[in-house]
Amino acid sequence: MARRVLLTLGPSDAEAAVAWATRLRAERRIEEYSPAPATLEDVYLAATAPSAAATTEDAAHA
User: Fold this and answer.
1) pLDDT tens for residues 6-56?
2) Cβ partners under 8 Å of residue 22, min gap 6
3) Exposed, middle or buried by CB within 10 Å (0-12, 13-18, 19+), for 30?
């Protein structure tokens, strides 16, 4: 089963993220990774997704 994980990082986090992914690949825990700039779809999903804080707060009041 293929899985895809999308992480949003700031410019200062890129080096650490590539080192982390390289280590996981060397350990054969992942098959591949590819850093890429954010797309318009990524921005839209981030802007329209409910935040974790709102989800937690809603659950607490349910």
Assistant:
1) 787 888 898 999 999 999 999 999 999 888 888 898 888 888 988 655 544
2) 33
3) middle
Residue labelled with tokens 């981030």: 46
Q: What's the pTM value of the predicted model, to 2 decimals?
A: 0.55
Q: Report which residue type is found at 8.
A: T
Least Cα distance to 5 among 44, 48, 36, 43 occurs for 36
Reported for 45-48, long-range contacts at CB under 8 A and 24+ positions apart, including other chains, are 46/8
Tokens of 8: 């949003």
The pair of structure tokens assigned to 56 is 């937690």
Structure tokens at 48: 């329209």
